[in-house]
Design a protein that fits this description.
heterodimer, A: alpha+beta, seven-stranded mixed beta sheet, five-stranded mixed beta sheet, 20 helices, 27 strands, globular, B: alpha+beta
Chain lengths: 751, 154
C-alpha cells in the first residue's frame, strides 16, 4: 500500500500494482490541493442561522428539512428512493422534506464502485477479493469520485443513507432530551417529531438550533429491515405526481431573467475542429442576436431556441476530417484486424488448458458482431450557463458533478472550484449524461456572452451527430463439446474501449486495460474445465462510451449466444444445461426461478420458440426467457420472464419498472438500432433511423426479484445484457436461424 | 402579432408564422409540459390538443394555429379528478417522465374516441409516442385502468 501513501496532492496515479491484481481505473487528475476531503460536510458552509447538518445528506433549518439526493436522477428513481432511505430512519413522511441534488464534493464519493473496479468476479467472496474491494474503496474515498452509473446507486447508498438518517434521528432525540430533561431512552420519534412520554410533540425543525450545539450521535445504527415502514414495500415514487401533472421542471424547462438561447452546429467528425464557416444567410434570420465561433463549430444566439436552431442550420461549415475512418466498412476492417498481440487488452481469465481442451471432441466456432449504438434519451442535451468575472454557474443534468466542474473550467481557463454546478432532473440518460459535449460547448458560448445567462439546447439531429456511441465489437469464440458436455470455451473479442474513453474525456486517463471489456466475457459461471477470456482494444476508431450496461451489452450477447450454440451442439436443453453447469448456488437459483416462472418444458414447436440467457453484470445475476412466434409478418415477441437477484429489493414497484425498462431497452436496440458512419458523420440523425422499441412491439414482461445475494446490488443495467441473447436464442429455437449480429432486423423481419 | 387561445386564455405572440407551436408554448409563453424530443413528429412528446384533437405541436405552425384553441396538460379541466392522470399516478407509469405528458395527452384523445380500447387499438394509437425508458407495460395498464374508471363514472 506504499503507493497510496505517496499520493501527490495535485494528481495521483493508480498503477495496477497498487491493489492486489490492479484496479481498472487510472490517474485521477482533478483533485485540487485545497480541495475538501471526503470527511468534510459540504452542507456546513451554506447553513443558515439556527440550522443544523449532521452529515452530507441531512440539513434542518427552523422552517424546513432538506434531504440530499447524492446520485443524479436519470429516470431510474433514485431522486425518490435516496431521500426515502433517510426518511425511513428519521421517521419522516413523504411531503415533510424537500429534496436537493448534491453539489460537487468528495463527500459524495461513490462507495458502490468498489466491487465493480476491483479485479474479481462478483461471485468471488474470497478474502483476497474482499481485501481488494476494501482497498478500492479507500482509493475511491481519496479520489472523491462522485459519479452516478454502473448500477451503483443502491450498493453505494443503502448503508450510508440509512446511517445518515439514524444519526439525524438520534441527535434530534438527544437535543429533545436536553431541552425536556427526559432520558433519551424514554423518547421516540414519529412523523417529523420527537414524542415525549406524556404525548407532547416537538417538531424536528424546532430542534434544529439546539441540535446544532451538541455533537451528533455518530454510533446510531439503522433499523432492522423488519421494522421498515416504507422501504421494501410497494411505495409511491416521490416524483411520480409532479411528472404526471406536468409540473416537474427538467433541465430543458429552466428559465432565467435576461436569458438568451443558443444552438450549435459542431463538427460531426467527433472532436475535430472547425475550419471555416459562412454565416451570411443566418445573420439575417429572425431572432438572431449573435453568431459565435467555438472550437469545434459555430453557435447562434437568438431570442428563442427555435430561431437559434433554424439559424445555425443555415450556416455552411467546413470541417476538419474525422480522426477515425470516414466510412463504416473501414471501422469493421479495423476491428477484424485487431485480434493481434499488439492490441491485447488483457487475458482476463484462464482455467485449465484451453488449447488441449479445444482439440478434444467436436469444435464449434462462431463470429459475432455488435454495432455502435446511440443513447438518445428523449430530453436532448441542454444546459444553462452564466459566466461572470469571478466564475461560471451551470445548470445541467449530469451524472458526474466534479467532472462537470473540471470540463467547464478547463474549456475557459477557470479553476474547477470557480464553477458552481446545479444538477437537474433529466429526461433519461442511458450513459449520455456522463459525457460532456454540451458542458464544454456551453462553457465556451457563455464565456463569449459574459454576464448573460445562455440556454443551450441541442437539436435532436445535433444530439445524434454528437452522441458518443456504445462500443462496437467483434467476438471470435471457439469451443468444443465432448460426450454431451462443454469441455472448452475460448472467448475473444475486439472492441473499442468505452470506460477508458470516458475517463480520458473526464480528465483522468487510464493506461489499464478497459475492465468493461471483461464484463460479460470473463464472469461466466458455468463449469467449463478449459476456459479463457481475452479482450483486444481496437485503436483509431470512433470514441465510445458507457451505454446502459456498458461492456456486458455486447459481450453478454456474444457469450450467451455462443454458450447456447455449444449447448445445442451437445444436444442438451438450453435451460437444463445452464442450470446443471452453473457453479454458484444462488445464481443457479436465479435460473431455476426463471425456469419455474416460464414453466420451461423444452421446445414449443409450431413456429414458437423460447430462448434463455443468463448474465451477471454489476454484480446482479439476471436470467431471462424470451418467447417468440414466427408469423407471416415476421418474428413476434410474445412474452419475457425475468429473475434477478439484488440481495435486497428496496423499492419493489420501481424495481419492476427498471427491469421491464431494461428488457425493453435491450430488445429494442437489438432488433433495429445501429449507428453507422459515412464521411465521418453518423448517418442516423433522428428516431426514425434509430427507433428501438415502440409499444406495439412490447411484450408482457414478468419480473421476480430474489434476495439471496450477500450484498445489495443495483438493477438499472443488469436486465439489459440477457435480453438480446435470449431473443436470438428464441429465434433460433423457433426458426433454426442463428443470428450472430445486431441489429437483428438485418437478418430477419419483426412484426 | 399572432393571437391564439391557450388553456382558455387569449395570448398573443410576436414571432414568425412558421414557428412551431411547440416552441411558442415553451419559449414564448413559458408552458413547458409539451416537450421537445425530435422536432419531426417521431416521438409524440410535444402532443397537445388543438380544438380537441391530439396534435404534434412541433408540426403545427403558429400561423395556422391562430384563432384556434390549444390545450396543454397544464390546462386540462379538473386535473385532480382526471381518470387518465389518476391511473398514471396509481400505476406509477413515469420513469424519467419526459415523454409522459405527451403520452397522457394522446391517451386522453384516444379515450375520447374509443371508450374501451383493445390492446390492438392501443398499439395503433400509442405507437407514435416513444418512451426511451420502456414504460410501455405500465402505459398499457394505465390506459385500461383509466378506461374502466371513465366507464364507472358514467
Amino acid at each position: 500500500m506504499g503507493h497510496m501513501q505517496s499520493l501527490s496532492r495535485r494528481a495521483f496515479v493508480f498503477g495496477s500494482a497498487a491493489v492486489a491484481g490492479g484496479i481498472a481505473f487510472g490517474a485521477y487528475g482533478n483533485a485540487e490541493a485545497a480541495a475538501p476531503s471526503a470527511s468534510d460536510n459540504p452542507l456546513a458552509a451554506g447553513l443558515g442561522p439556527d440550522s443544523v447538518t449532521f452529515n452530507p445528506w441531512v440539513e434542518i433549518s427552523p422552517d424546513k428539512i432538506t434531504l440530499i439526493a447524492q446520485h443524479a436522477d436519470i429516470g431510474q428513481g433514485v431522486g425518490s428512493v435516496q431521500p426515502i432511505m433517510i426518511a425511513e430512519e428519521m421517521d419522516l413522511d413523504p411531503g415533510q422534506f424537500e429534496i436537493r441534488f448534491a453539489s460537487p464534493s468528495p463527500a459524495y464519493f461513490n462507495t458502490g464502485f468498489a466491487d465493480e473496479f476491483a479485479p474479481f468476479v462478483a461471485a468471488d467472496q474470497s478474502p483476497a477479493a474482499e481485501e481488494a474491494r476494501a482497498a478500492t474503496l479507500e482509493w475511491l474515498r481519496k479520489s472523491g469520485l462522485q459519479m452516478t452509473g454502473g448500477s451503483s446507486s443502491m450498493p453505494d447508498t443503502y448503508e450510508k443513507l440509512r446511517v445518515a438518517g439514524a444519526v439525524a434521528r438520534e441527535t434530534l432525540k438527544a437535543a429533545a432530551a436536553r431541552r425536556s430533561g427526559i432520558a433519551v431512552a424514554d423518547l421516540r420519534t414519529e412523523s417529523g417529531h420527537v414524542i415525549l412520554p406524556n404525548g407532547s410533540r416537538i417538531a424536528y425543525v424546532a430542534l434544529a438550533a439546539e441540535a446544532a450545539k451538541i455533537p451528533p450521535v455518530l454510533d446510531a445504527k439503522p433499523r432492522d429491515p423488519s421494522k421498515w415502514r416504507m422501504l421494501g414495500k410497494p411505495m409511491q415514487r416521490l416524483d411520480i405526481r409532479a411528472k404526471v401533472m406536468g409540473e416537474l421542471k427538467f433541465g430543458i424547462d429552466m428559465k432565467m431573467d435576461g436569458m438568451l438561447y443558443a444552438s450549435v452546429k459542431l463538427n460531426p467528425g467527433k472532436g475535430q475542429p472547425l475550419k471555416s464557416y459562412d454565416a451570411s444567410k443566418a445573420r439575417a434570420m429572425p431572432g438572431v442576436k449573435k453568431i459565435l465561433e467555438i472550437k469545434n463549430g459555430v453557435a447562434v444566439i437568438a431570442t428563442n431556441s427555435w430561431y437559434a436552431m433554424e439559424a445555425v442550420d443555415a450556416i455552411a461549415c467546413e470541417w476538419a476530417p474525422s480522426a477515425y475512418p470516414a466510412e463504416q466498412a473501414d471501422h469493421w476492417k479495423v476491428l477484424e484486424s485487431s485480434f493481434k498481440p499488439e492490441f491485447l487488452g488483457k487475458e482476463w481469465r484462464k482455467i485449465g488448458d484451453i488449447e488441449t481442451g479445444l482439440k478434444t471432441g467436436t469444435r464449434v466456432e462462431a463470429e459475432y458482431r455488435a454495432p455502435y449504438v446511440a443513447h438518445q434519451p428523449l430530453e436532448p442535451l441542454n444546459g444553462i450557463g452564466l459566466v461572470t468575472d469571478t466564475g461560471m454557474e451551470i445548470w445541467v443534468g449530469h451524472q458526474s458533478p466534479r467532472f462537470v466542474q473540471w470540463v467547464a473550467a478547463t474549456a475557459i481557463g477557470l479553476k474547477p472550484e470557480q464553477v458552481t454546478f446545479h444538477n437537474q432532473w433529466t429526461g433519461g440518460s442511458f450513459g449520455h449524461r456522463l459525457e460532456y459535449e454540451n458542458v464544454r460547448v456551453l462553457a465556451e458560448i457563455a464565456n463569449q456572452m459574459k454576464g448573460t445567462p445562455i440556454k443551450l439546447v441541442f437539436s435532436r439531429e445535433e444530439d445524434f451527430l454528437q452522441d458518443i456511441p456504445r462500443q462496437i465489437a467483434i467476438a471470435r469464440h471457439r469451443g468444443s463439446i465432448d460426450k454431451g458436455k462443454i469441455v472448452a470455451a475460448d472467448l475473444q473479442l475486439a472492441s473499442t474501449a468505452p470506460l477508458k474513453g470516458l475517463l480520458e474525456r473526464s480528465g483522468t486517463p487510464s493506461k489499464d486495460p478497459d475492465g468493461q471489456l471483461a464484463a460479460g466475457l470473463w464472469n461466466v459461471y458455468y463449469d467449463i474445465p478449459n476456459f479463457r477470456a481475452t479482450s483486444y482494444e481496437a485503436q483509431g476508431l470512433s470514441p465510445s462510451t458507457t451505454w446502459r450496461s456498458v461492456g456486458a451489452s455486447t459481450s453478454g450477447f456474444f457469450t450467451e449466444s455462443f454458450i447456447d450454440e455449444l449447448i445445442h451442439a451437445a444436444g442438451l436443453d438450453p435451460m437444463k444445461a445452464r442450470i446443471a453447469m452453473c457453479t454458484v448456488p444462488h445464481y443457479r437459483k436465479v435460473l431455476e426461478t426463471v425456469a419455474e416462472m416460464s414453466d420451461w418444458k423444452g421446445p414449443l414447436g409450431n413456429g414458437r420458440g423460447r430462448g434463455v440467457a443468463f448474465v451477471e453484470s454489476f454484480g446482479t445475476p439476471t436470467a431471462e426467457v424470451v418467447e417468440v412466434t414466427a408469423t407471416d409478418r415476421g418474428i413476434r415477441i410474445d412474452k419475457v420472464w425475468v429473475a434477478a437477484d439484488v440481495g435486497k429489493v428496496i423499492d419493489p414497484v420501481n424495481f419492476e419498472s427498471q427491469v421491464q425498462g431494461g428488457v425493453v431497452w435491450g430488445l429494442g436496440h437489438a432488433i433495429n438500432c445501429e449507428l453507422t458512419y459515412s464521411k465521418g458523420a453518423a448517418q442516423q440523425t433522428n428516431y426514425n433511423h434509430h427507433e428501438a422499441m415502440r409499444i406495439y412491439q412490447c411484450p408482457v414482461i414478468e419480473v421476480r426479484g430474489l434476495e439471496n445475494d450477500p450484498k445489495v446490488r443495483g438493477v438499472g443495467e443488469p436486465p439489459v445484457p440477457p435480453a438480446a441473447p435470449a431473443l436470438a436464442n428464441a429465434i433460433f429455437a423457433a426458426t433454426g436461424k442463428r443470428i450472430r449480429e445486431m441489429p437483428f432486423n438485418k437478418f430477419i423481419d419483426f412484426v | 402579432m399572432i393571437e391564439l387561445m391557450v388553456n382558455g386564455i387569449k395570448r398573443s405572440v410576436d414571432v414568425v408564422p412558421e414557428m412551431p407551436l411547440l416552441w411558442v408554448l415553451r419559449d414564448e409563453l413559458g408552458i413547458t409540459s409539451p416537450k421537445y424530443g425530435c422536432g419531426v413528429a417521431q416521438c409524440g412528446a410535444c402532443t397537445v390538443h388543438i380544438d380537441g384533437k391530439a396534435v404534434r405541436s412541433c408540426q403545427a405552425h403558429i400561423g395556422e394555429v391562430a384563432g384556434k384553441s390549444v390545450v396543454t396538460l397544464e390546462g386540462l379541466d379538473n386535473k385532480e379528478q382526471n381518470p387518465v392522470l389518476q391511473a398514471w399516478i396509481e400505476h406509477q407509469v413515469p420513469q424519467c417522465g419526459y415523454c409522459q405528458t405527451g403520452q397522457i395527452m394522446q391517451t386522453i384523445s384516444l379515450l375520447a374516441r374509443i371508450s374501451k380500447p383493445t390492446d390492438e387499438q392501443i398499439n395503433q394509437v400509442m405507437s407514435g409516442n416513444l418512451c426511451r425508458c420502456g414504460t410501455y407495460p405500465r402505459i398499457r395498464a394505465a390506459i385500461h385502468a383509466a378506461a374502466s374508471r371513465k366507464m364507472a363514472e358514467k
